[in-house]
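Reply to dn_fold:

You asked what the input looked like. This is it:
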Amino acid sequence: VQLQASGGGLVQAGGSLRLSCAASRRILSINTMGWYRQAPGTQRELVASITRIGTTNYADSVKGRFTISRDNVKNTVYLQMNSLKSEDTAVYYCNARNVAVGGALDYWGQGTQVTVSS
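and this is what came back:
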C-alpha cells in the first residue's frame, strides 16, 4: 500500500487544518487506518485511528479537537484538526495496518509537517 499525505502547514494557535491521506488501494481492504505524529526528540505517537468498520480511537490529548474520517470511494482518510495548540506541532504520518497470521504489517506515508504558532 502506498500512502500520500497532504494538508500540513503553518497555522496560528486556535486555528484548524485538515490532513488527507490517499491510499493506492481500497481502504476497505485495510484493517486500520491511522494518523501518528512525531515531534523533535520524541517518539512517534498515535493520534487517531479508524477501523474498517468505522470504529475510532483518539489520543487523550486530541479528544474533542480532532476528528478522523474516511471516504471509501476516494480511498482517502482525513484528520480534521481544530483548536490547534503549539504542542500539536509535529510531523504527521499516515499509517495503514493489516493484521494477518504472524503479526501486523504497517505501511507509512511520507509525513506532513504541522506547525502551530502561539
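Residues 17 and 87 are 14 Å apart (CA to CA).
Hope that clears it up.
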